[in-house]
Amino acid sequence: MKYNPSAIWNSGFFREIMVLLLCAMGLLSVGIWLGKIAEFLCLVALSYLGWHLLQLHKLRMWLHDPKVSPEFMGIWREVFEDMETQLRSIHAQSGRKRKPKLDWIVKRFNKSVSLLPDAAILLGKEERIEWWNLTADRLFGLKKDDKGLRITHLIRHPEFIRRLREEKIWQQPLEAPSPVDPDTWLTILILPIGKRKRLLQARDSTRLHRLEQIRRDFVANVSHELRTPLTVINGYTETLLDHDDIRELSWYPVLSGIHQQAERMGKIVEDLLLLSRLEMEERKPGQERVPVAAILEAIREDALILGNRAHRITITADPELEIMGNARELRSAFSNLIFNAVHYTASEGEIAVRWHGNNEGGHLLVRDTGIGIEARHLSRITERFYRVDTGRSRETGGTGLGLTIVKHVLTQHGAKLSIESAPGRGSIFACHFPPARLRRRIPTDDARNHSEYSPPENVALESQR
User: Which is one GO molecular function term here (predicted)?
Assistant: First the structure.
C-alpha cells in the first residue's frame, strides 16, 4: 500500500484529530495564562463529548425519519455519507432481486384473471381502461386501441353512467345489454381497488334474463286469462246474492263463500298485473307533478271506511311539497302502506302519516300502534307472497304483494323503503325520495313573479291538515 499524503489529509479521522489538537492547545494556553489548567482540560473534554452526543442525536433522528437530511460536521459527515451509500446499494440489490419475483407474480395474476369466466376491466384515473381479460374482449368487444379509453365511451347505458358517477362502491349489480350485442345481457358490478382504481366485473346473465322475462310474461298472461272467468264468477254470485228468496236455501253460505274467495282472487290478479307492469316498464316513471298531500287526504278517507272508522288516522303533510313521478303508482304504494297499518292495528288504535322534506329529500312516514313485526321477518317482508302471519293475512284479505308493489314503485322513483318495528310496539314504514324528485309549489300570490315550481327549500316545512 503506497503512502499517499493527500489521502491522509482528506481523511475525516485525521482532520478530526487535528481540529481537536488545535482547540485543546488554544484552551490549554488560556488555562496556563489564567492558572487553571485542570479546569480548562475538563471543559475541553466535556465540550467534545457534548458535540458527539449532538451528532448522535441527529443520526438517531435521521434513522427515525429518513426524509430529514441533517447537517453533520467532522467525522460524522463521512459516517453519514458512508451509511447512506451502503443503504442505497443494499436497497438497489434487493430491488433487483425482487423485480423478477414481482414480474412472475404479476404474470401469474394476469394469466389467472384472464382465464376467469367473468369479464374484468381495470379502470384508472378518470375511469379510463388500463387492463382487461379475455372474457372482456368477448363481452365488450375490446381491442388493443381501446386502452386509455374512458369506459363511458364503451358502455353508454344511462343507468351505468349515472351510477358510475354517483356511487363509489356499488351495493347492487346492474343489468344492462352488451355494447356489442343487444341480445346479450350482462350483470355489472364496480369494486374499488387501491386509492384511485376500480375494477369492473361483468357476467353473462342472458339465460337468467330470459328466464326472468319468461316468468314475467307467464305471470302477466295467466293473470289476464284469470281476470275474465273471475269477473264472470263474481257477476253471477253477486246476482244470486242480491235475490232475497235464496237466503233461506241451505247452499246460501256456500255461495257467499264463493263470492268472497272470488273477490280475493280478483285482488291477487290485479296486484299481479300491476307488479308485472312495474317490472316490464323501463325505470322512467311518468314525469307528472304529484300532489302528495292531496293524495294522502283521499287515502285517509278510504282507510277510515276500510277500518269502519274505528281508527284514529292523522295526516301531517306539507301541501306545497310535491313529487315528480307517476301519480297512479305512488297512490298505489302509499295506499298499500296505510291500508296495511289499518289491517294490523286494533280498533281505537292510532295511525300517523307524515310527509315532509329536508336537505336529504322527501320523507313519507306511516307510524301505527299495531301488533308489530319480529326482527327476523323484516329482511324478507317485501318478498312476493311472504306473510308474517298467514292466518291473519287471509282474515284481512291481504294478497301478500302489497309491500312488493311498494318496493318496486319506490325503486322506479329512485326512492328507498325503511322499516322499524317490534312486537307490541307498532311499526314505522318510511319512504325516502331523493331531492331531485321533489318540487315545491309556489303560492298563488307569488306566482306572478316566479315560475310555478322551484327546488325544495333546505328547511323542512310542515303544515297540520
Answer: phosphoprotein phosphatase activity
- Least Cα distance to 364 among 375, 374, 352 occurs for 352
Residues 6+ apart with CB under 8 A from 405: 271, 274, 275, 278, 332, 333, 336
* pLDDT, greater one: 306 or 15: 306
Query: What confidence tier does 283 reach under pLDDT thresholds 50, 70, 90?
Result: low
* Residue in 202, 188, 207 with CA at minimum distance from that of residue 118: 202
Own/partner long-range contacts of 129-133 (Cβ < 8 Å, ≥24 apart): 129/154, 130/197
The answer for residues whose C-beta is within 8 angstroms of residue 278's C-beta and 6 or more apart is 329, 405, 408, 409, 412
pLDDT in the model for residue 365: 94
- Give the C-alpha separation, 337 to 421, whole Å: 14
Query: What sign for the dihedral angle of Cα 60, 66, 71, 73?
Result: positive
> CA 164 → CA 123, 156, 170, 440, distances in Å?
11, 11, 9, 29
B/e letters for 60-78, b = 16+ CB within 10 Å, e = fewer, are eebeeeeeeeeebebbbeb
Instruction: Tell me if 426 sits within 8 A of 378, measured CB to CB.
Output: no
Overall residue count recorded for the chain in this entry: 465
Q: How far apart are CA 200 and CA 192, in angstroms?
A: 9
pLDDT band of 455, cuts 50, 70, 90: very low
Q: Is 346 helix (H, G, I), strand (E, B) or coil?
A: coil
| pLDDT band (50, 70, 90) for residue 449 | very low
Which domains, from first to last, does the chain contain? 1-113 (no CATH), 116-204 (3.30.450.20), 208-280 (1.10.287.130), 288-464 (3.30.565.10)
Which of 10-14, 191-195, 269-273, 450-454 is predicted least confidently?
A: 450-454
Distances (CA, A) of 111 to 103, 135, 202: 12, 12, 18
Q: What are phi and psi of 130, to 5 degrees?
A: -110, -30
Query: For residue 387, which amino acid is it?
Result: R
C-alpha cell of residue 278: 312495474
C-beta of residue 302 within 8 angstroms of C-beta of residue 415: no
Q: What is the distance between the terminal CA atoms of the chain, rounded to a whole angstrom?
A: 106
Q: Which three cell numbers stand for residue 71?
A: 447537517
Which DSSP helix (H) or strand (E) runs through 191? strand 185-193
Contact (CB, 8 A) for 262 and 230: yes
Q: pLDDT class for 115, splitting at 50, 70, 90? A: low
DSSP H or E run through 193? strand 185-193
